[in-house]
Amino acid sequence: MLTEKDKQALIKLPNDMLATFRARVMLTEMPESILRFYEENASQINGDVVVVRSKAQESNAAYLRNNSPKVLFVFGHEYWVDRYFSSVCDRVNLPGPLLKRAKRAS
Fold first, then answer.
1. What is the 3-state secondary structure (H, E, C) of the chain?
2. How far apart are CA 98 and CA 12, in angstroms?
3. Which pLDDT belongs to residue 3?
4. Average pLDDT, stretch 57-70?
5. Which residues, at least 6 apart from 83, have a Cβ–Cβ distance to it below 8 Å?
6. What pairs with residue 50 in β-bridges?
7. What average pLDDT score do residues 48-54 get?
């Protein structure tokens, strides 16, 4: 189960990066609990949020990559991120304990 501190970090870390010169940031290999968190809390992120669980959801991510000024990409653990996204995105690094709790919550 994610703690309140975890939830605050999940909002703050990408927002801090999006507030600087970075236009596209990403989280990769995220467990389902984090994917759901960002779907439910997208309005708190200072940019568009796109959650990608599979190749079927890739087209929306590609559209936002090319057309949105600020984007947080959240890639699920079953999606292999290729250079099309990784070459233009900075990676958000989440604390290890937060990831452990998120994996247990999934």
1. CCCHHHHHHHHHHHHHHHHCCCCEEEEEEECHHHHHHHHHCHHHCCCEEEEECCHHHHHHHHHHHHHCCCEEEEEECCCCCCHHHHCCCEECCCCHHHHHHHHHHC
2. 13
3. 92
4. 93
5. none
6. 73
7. 96
**pLDDT in the model for residue 73:** 97
What is the distance between the alpha carbons of residues 9 and 4, in angstroms, rounded to a whole number? 9
pTM for this model (two decimals)? 0.93
CA distance 25 to 89: 5
Which amino acid is present at 102?
A: A
- Report the length, in residues, of the chain: 106
Q: Are the beta carbons of 72 and 99 closer than 8 angstroms?
A: no
